[in-house]
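User: hey, got a sec? need Alpha/Beta hydrolase protein folded
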Amino acid sequence: MLSVGYDEYVTQGGDWGYLVTRIIAQTYGPKHSKAWHTNHSRGAPPSLTSSPLLYLANLFTPLTEAEEKGAERTKETDEYDMGYFAEQTTRPQTLGYSLSHSPAGLLAWIYEKLIHWTNEYPWDDDEDKSKPPTALRTTADFAFSSITRLGHHRSMLTWISIYWFSKAGPAASLRIYYETIKHDEHGVRSSDAPTIPFGASFFPKEIIRHPITWIRNVHNLVFTSEYERGGHFASYERPDAIASDLRSMFGKEGPTHGVVKGLNGL
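Assistant: Yep! Here you go:
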């Protein structure tokens, strides 16, 4: 950000973007990075010695209905949905050869996450349904008939194509898992927490959901929002919600309004 002329700024991210924006907040806050927002927040249980008030709050405050469902979702993720993570953090190159060799294999690897981690997102074409199908669409429907039956057409294929046709290839997206776990040169797994203002948006199909007391324990939480629809890919599923929360957090009358000098918000 400094190299492109932004001396002060705020950030937003989900999934690995949470980790990236956290590193930015740790490394460049509060001098340059002024506040940050995520739709994939993490926390840690408070201890009696370091955070006695939060510890008691965590002990005696019942979970909300959304937090209870989030805890169930987190447990399900830990028990049944981390196989991909084990492979990508230990043998990414082996997996990379397979994904780079087979379009169908790449489709299967990503498709299940796009379905399971979203909140019944339709994945429909933006194409006008009143128009007759094009040759390209007919070919896609024939080649991916299982997707067609579910009504998942070009949006899904666009996601997969970004990985398949990129110059770096599908294997490139796996390296961040291995490098982060094996080297951790930025200390991202340390207990050091950023001190700059932090905001979080919560969606019901997010794969990990920690109680609010856990999040307050490691972040300077100034903004939260709760939604009844949306999942792990919220910026794609619910761009309206993410944009609204950014306006509410960083804009006029928001808790971080004016944190960047000379900019007064939306």
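Quick note: Residues 126-151 have pLDDT under 50 and may be disordered. Let me know if you need anything else on Alpha/Beta hydrolase protein.
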